[in-house]
Amino acid sequence: MASNDLSPGPSGPSGPQRADGGPVRVLVVDDEPDITDVLSRMLRSEGWAVAAAADGRAALELAREFRPDAVILDMMLPDLDGFAVLSRLRALSPEVCVLFLTARDAVEDRIAGLTAGGDDYVTKPFSLEEVLARLHGLVRRAGVTRRTERPGLLKVGDLELDEDAREVARGGEPVELTPTEFELLRFLMRHPRRVLSKAQILDHVWSYDFGGQAHVVELYISYLRKKIDAGRAPMIHTVRGVGYVLRPGAR
Amino acid sequence: MASNDLSPGPSGPSGPQRADGGPVRVLVVDDEPDITDVLSRMLRSEGWAVAAAADGRAALELAREFRPDAVILDMMLPDLDGFAVLSRLRALSPEVCVLFLTARDAVEDRIAGLTAGGDDYVTKPFSLEEVLARLHGLVRRAGVTRRTERPGLLKVGDLELDEDAREVARGGEPVELTPTEFELLRFLMRHPRRVLSKAQILDHVWSYDFGGQAHVVELYISYLRKKIDAGRAPMIHTVRGVGYVLRPGAR
DNA sequence: TGAACTTCTGTGATCCCTCTGAAAAGGGGT
DNA sequence: ACCCCTTTTCAGAGGGATCACAGAAGTTCA
């Protein structure tokens, strides 16, 4: 209840770090202030350095001095076509990696061809966890981030989640999860030992336009428990009146 | 009400401090004078710099020169919609963090979704401790406050309370608490060695519209004693005719 | 197109947290 | 010692929160 997000843990800033030790720089480009706002805040709270622009012109200007490592780029901009922005961004700094935001039906078209270059895309409406996960994948593949123990592998107790392979295992035993279950578990595993409210979970795991009740969270928690805690010492604990915690050891 | 404020202790102002050493600045916006009044008093007595406004127009004007680090914003204002105020506040200073006040049934609607940005909300009726805890969490995560040893961890003697994990331990031994017990203990631990009257406790831990008697305080104190002082040297002491103290060592 | 699967809603049952009321225990003063 | 007042403890009603189950709606894939 109390805390609402994702602050860097007690062990210091847990956000992505560049090889030079500074935070990874990301530029958010979208004409809807709600979107840039929520993305900027979340990314900042996750330890990224963030700049935001509302149209293509501003984005290009900003990119020139902000020198982002990555760009989150809406393909529907008021002034310039997303592709125009893209090509000029690339002219400016060829190394930058791009995460496209696009409407669901526009995907098949031409976006698919772009991902071949190592970039990636997310369809609107998206969930924050999805954006975060893709962005992480992008900069990791691009070699921007400092090499850590084993990137893309989350471990909590004997529970392992591989973000790249999308595989989950408890005590070496593989576990099959549906997409939503996977996202929920990833969110829990990225914030272990920390009580997460249903509202927080809803905000991060479900799409931003999801109008549903907190009830779905309870439902999916129960699904996860059946698959992950079945028979073993439970790792998902409910904190009555507050939310849920993922806790490794006993208790 | 007024008599139940907590002034800064003899050890000087213990309130939050900005990285520059000054007090954290918070703007309270609510159209009910009772609310702004009680919040302002409490926050001031906790060492914050406070300004208050009764409607959106005044809030925006005030924000321009007061330059708050955080805003407590009622979503039901007489003139402007809370969301309108929010977006203009953001336009003014994007870094500001916001704690929303909202009716219980309005939550599911649109407030959820805001917590994703790192902001937070509290439903009316609220308790002062709840507001304070959330506000603390917000500015801590926003990196406004000076970094202390381990944020979110309260220690008194061998008693520890982790606000993030919502865990309590006495002498390393974990203790299970219900939500109300937890809030009560947090309040006590935030003001150790200080006699707190039942009225003060009632005002801070219970919702402001709670009509009940001081009897519940005695009841919950007894619950806490059973769980925390059981067998050990007691830390919760009764000051007859006055209230209770939480004291670490002997005596 | 049909079958399998995933996601979400609704209902009811259960648990346990909160608070009330009353009785018991304790303190302090005369 | 006695009485009065405060504090503590006990027992239980009520209600909110959580969970389990079933099924409808939507999606994916062959």
Q: What features would you describe in this structure?
A:
- The structure is a homodimer of 251-residue chains.
- With 251 residues, chain A is of the alpha/beta class.
- In chain A, 37% of the residues lie in helices and 21% in strands.
- Chain A contains eight helices and twelve strands.
- In chain A, the strands form three sheets. In chain A, strands 2-1-3-4-5 form a five-stranded parallel beta sheet, sandwiched between helices.
- In chain A, helix 2 runs parallel beside helix 3 and helix 6 packs across helix 8.
- Chain A is globular, with a radius of gyration of 19 Å.
- The N terminus of chain A is likely disordered.
- At the A-B interface, helix 1 and helix 7 of A face helix 4 and helix 5 of B.
- Chain A binds a DNA duplex (30 and 30 nucleotides) through helix 6 and helix 8.
Order of helices and strands of chain A: EHEHEHEHEHEEEEHEHHEE
| Average pLDDT figure of chain A | 85
Distance between the termini of chain A: 20 Å
Strand ordering within the main sheet of chain A: 2-1-3-4-5
Helix content of chain A: 25-40%
Oligomer: homodimer
Largest interface: A-B, 36 and 35 residues
Number of strands of chain A: 12
Largest sheet of chain A, if any?
A: 5 strands, parallel
Instruction: Give the helix tally of chain A.
Output: 8
Shape of chain A: globular
Q: Which segments of chain A are poorly predicted (pLDDT under 50) over 5 or more consecutive residues?
A: 1-5, 7-13
Q: Which class of secondary structure composition applies to the elements of chain A?
A: alpha/beta
Range of strand content of chain A: 15-25%
